[in-house]
Amino acid sequence: MVWPAQSPDLNPMKHTWGYLKRRLAEHEHLEQQYYQHPPNGMEQLWERIEVDWNKVPASVCQGLIESMSRRIEAVLKAKGGYTKY
Predict the structure, then answer these.
(1) How far apart are CA 25 and CA 49, in angstroms?
(2) Rounded to a whole number, what is the largest CA-CA distance in the chain?
(3) d(C-alpha 56, C-alpha 63), whole Å
(4) Name one GO molecular function term (predicted).
(5) Contact present, 15 and 64 (Cβ < 8 Å)
(6) C-beta separation of 71 from 85 below 8 A
(7) Structure confidence at residue 58 (pLDDT)
(8) Could you tell me how far CA 28 lies from the centroid of its own chain?
């Protein structure tokens, strides 16, 4: 297989960071004191990222692994172009 250069569709970390970004955005709606206010700097932002990173369910990672063959097929079909992933 010719590997498309810089294909984010084939990068499971891109999808993992996307999941984490959505989780962090959800904190705006939580009532927990830790997340009631936006982070007051980079250090606090990284602390929040670390907390949520450690909570990424194994099922999310497993789903990314299991979807790899579908993502490869989609990238090949699109000849390296845009896919739904």
Answers:
(1) 11
(2) 50
(3) 12
(4) nucleic acid binding
(5) yes
(6) yes
(7) 95
(8) 18
